[in-house]
């Protein structure tokens, strides 16, 4: 229940705040994350670093929770982060320089 509520609220907040017309610019990065995460979960199915567990329900297992994160939550977060990065070498250096000093 909490995961469903979190996902809906997260998407309702994040979707209006991003410019979805530029999705092709960040598509390869999102696709890289999704492919690597699915490959990791396939290769290390029995030996994962951590396991998601639902508090309320039995049917909401690690696989379903991880697929929700892989296809809904993390791609929107990646798109949201990359869409607000400044463009140009000078602006990127200033952006990261200010981030490191703060």
From TrEMBL:
InterPro entries recorded: CBO0543-like
Keyword annotations of the record: Membrane, Transmembrane, Transmembrane helix
TM regions (residue ranges): 59-82
Entry superkingdom: Bacteria
Tagged with keyword Transmembrane: yes
The protein, known as: Lycopene cyclase domain-containing protein
Taxonomic lineage: Bacteria, Bacillati, Bacillota, Bacilli, Bacillales
